[in-house]
Write a structure and sequence with these properties.
Length: about 325
């Protein structure tokens, strides 16, 4: 079956799904700076989506529209969008998958890697590393949607189990497989084991040569990703925390970006935030986590960032930026 994954360049680049970060507002900003080849949504709980009482909580996570374009502004080029989901009940994956297909998503990705303890206590995400039969059932249920189904996971739970776990996933005929090169126990407390990609690729070539493999973990920018892809034979590269130190990390032309460029990008973020807020009200304080992305690496950045953290609205943020120029 031809899927969006087959049409991407090699290596292709993906912005990692991050809780409270990779919504339609931030995806718009990243596209203005330097877009990846494909986006994932924030991860969405299938149980909430399938609940009449909980579905409202997934609305913002699954918003697909470009908020600026929706408000009549200039659109950015469209980038394929995959919905990332999590849970433990196959029937909910089947129900949610059919709805996601109707919503126009380009694919479904199943989160089998989140290491957060409150999540894995439910048996979901990285807990599935210890429950391969259920993992296979969830994949099969998501495939009922007709959309390409991929998985994002880790190399093990307490210790690496690449042959057993990654091999099991590769036998499920996935559209793509993202491997974060740490175990659940390691969280993000140790450097990623990039050398593990070699074993993953060898398994892929032996079991499912048609499945694209995406490397993830401590990859800072496109140039770093291209080096790792060439070294280990990765089809794709996923960047997560690297976006917080360089919003231009997907750029094909690396270089320094000055205060003017960074503040312009922050203003774009404020505009997109306000536009999205007119569709669905948003709390202001969570926006502050993004300030460190733009207010860095120029004279007076720390002082300006401190002033911005005391702001109460996007209007006040704009005023602080204007008087600091």
């Amino acid at each position: 079956m031809k899927t969006v994954w087959n049409e991407l360049p090699r290596p292709f680049f993906v912005l990692a799904p991050m809780e409270g970060v990779t919504d339609n507002v931030f995806r718009r900003v990243v596209s203005e700076a330097a877009a990846p080849d494909i986006y994932f949504t924030e991860f969405v709980n299938a149980a909430s989506f399938c609940s009449p009482k909980g579905i409202h909580s997934t609305r913002g996570r699954l918003a697909t529209e470009d908020p600026i374009a929706a408000a009549g502004g200039q659109p950015v080029p469209k980038v394929p969008l995959v919905a990332q989901i999590w849970g433990t009940r196959p029937e909910q994956f089947a129900q949610m998958g059919r709805a996601l297909a109707d919503m126009g998503y380009d694919g479904i990705d199943i989160n089998m890697g989140c290491p957060v303890k409150d999540v894995i206590k439910t048996g979901a995400c990285s807990a599935l590393i210890n429950n391969p039969p259920l993992a296979a059932e969830l994949i099969a249920a998501a495939k009922e949607s007709g959309l390409p189904v991929s998985v994002k996971t880790r190399i093990g739970f307490t210790t690496p189990v690449i042959e057993e776990w990654i091999g099991h996933l590769l036998r499920q005929d996935l559209a793509a497989l993202t491997v974060h090169a740490r175990t659940q126990r390691e969280m993000s407390k140790v450097p990623a084991h990039h050398e593990a990609f070699a074993q993953v690729i060898a398994l892929r070539d032996a079991i499912a040569p048609q499945t694209p493999v995406i490397g993830n973990g401590d990859i800072m920018d496109r140039q770093h990703g291209e080096t790792l892809a060439a070294q280990y034979g990765l089809d794709g590269v996923m960047i997560g925390r690297g976006i917080f130190t360089n919003p231009f990390c997907f750029s094909t032309a690396p270089g320094q970006h000055d205060r003017k460029e960074l503040l312009a990008l922050l203003r774009s973020h404020l505009d997109a935030f306000d536009a999205a807020g007119r569709v669905q009200p948003r709390k202001f304080d969570p926006l502050k986590r993004f300030f460190k992305i733009y207010i860095r690496n120029f004279d007076g950045a720390s002082e300006l960032r401190e002033r911005l953290m005391s702001a109460k609205s996007t209007t006040e943020v704009r005023h602080i930026i204007d008087i600091s120029a």
